[in-house]
């Protein structure tokens, strides 16, 4: 499968040709306001389902623009329709942002907007995602006042993306997709230069689940392991053998991978412990293999543990399926970016092993996620997501707003 539509394939819904110059250019005043808004969010990061300040800030700005946002019933996150009137039955394009931060310290130096909250940081770029959707909403609201918005658009500011199985499920349960026929989003990519986006048809992320394994045995003296369950050895064998077994029980192309992040057991060098715990993540590139993963993992853990007479409790926590971009939505994003910045601003992107709960929306409606370039051209620092020193070139905010507004205008003209 090609990673994205070629420009011959990148047609708008209905196969219509691209129009001329699009309205909705970002003013210098709004650009400066959005940068300030992003920096404020960056200084005040909040974890999933705790984003009360963030939600209030978004709500206040949308209301200042004459819009009527609705806070989700969970208490954080909100949705807001632009250009929708009472009784309007037209289906909508949705723009999605995630608003939560990560439980890690901000280690950046020399910036005025470093996090002011200990052990909290916007190290995944959600402050940028939020600001781009907010900016797009403000631009589209102005276009609607001018009679230039062809179709209503829904803004979704979703909480708790970093908390499995993801706040998208709560947003959907709260009606975020009612009346929506297509949804698009972006994710910051520090490997892509600012001013560009990365596109891919098909799976662009992997599935991501969490696994916890609890082992128990009678314990004993290290002088007599043959009389008890050698729980340390059992835990070590599970850590080593279970990932290897899984690799031989699914097609290698499915990319099913179990990686451990924690192993705890024992308190003394001459005592065989009675309890051990392992936890990690199960990631998978293929949707069908992901559906089979819980049964495969349970069987492999039980098989290895049984060889060592260890009693097991397995907690397999479903996370998110892969984000699978449909070709038509990728064509829309391709056309929108081409209209704003030219085809040179689009590049192919690879499927990653990261998880994203945007995938839950795609279980209900068509849509796509683009990689938003945030690296300053020529930068050699190699910043990466989920690190305390992560930062972005803030020109990415303008690019994201342009992409969203052009998508809304093009999709609305040809829905």
Secondary-structure topology with pairs:
Blueprint: H1 28-43, H2 52-64, E1 70-71, E2 78-82, E3 92-98, H3 126-145, E4 153-158, H4 168-173, E5 180-193, E6 197-199, E7 202-203, E8 207-216, E9 220-221, H5 231-247, E10 257-265, E11 271-272, E12 275-284, H6 287-307, E13 311-320, E14 324-325, H7 327-341, E15 346-348, H8 358-362, E16 366-375, H9 395-413
Parallel strand pairs: 3-4, 3-5, 5-16, 6-15
Antiparallel strand pairs: 1-2, 2-4, 6-16, 7-14, 8-12, 8-13, 9-11, 10-12
Helix pairs in contact: 1-3, 3-9, 5-6, 7-9
Oligomeric status of the shown chains?
single chain
Helix content: 25-40%
Query: Overall mean pLDDT score?
Result: 92
CATH class bucket of the largest domain:
Alpha Beta
Please give the number of β-strands.
16
Strand residues, percent: 15-25%
Specify Rg, calculated over alpha carbons. 24 Å
* Total of DSSP H or I helical runs spanning 4+ residues: 9
What is the name of the CATH topology of the largest domain? Aminopeptidase
Main sheet specs: 8 strands, mixed
Order of the strands making up the biggest sheet: 1-2-4-3-5-16-6-15
Class of secondary structure makeup: alpha/beta
N- to C-terminal separation? Answer: 26 Å
- CATH homologous superfamily caption of the largest domain: Zn peptidases
| N-to-C order of helices and strands | HHEEEHEHEEEEEHEEEHEEHEHEH
Poorly predicted residue ranges: 5-19
Shape: elongated
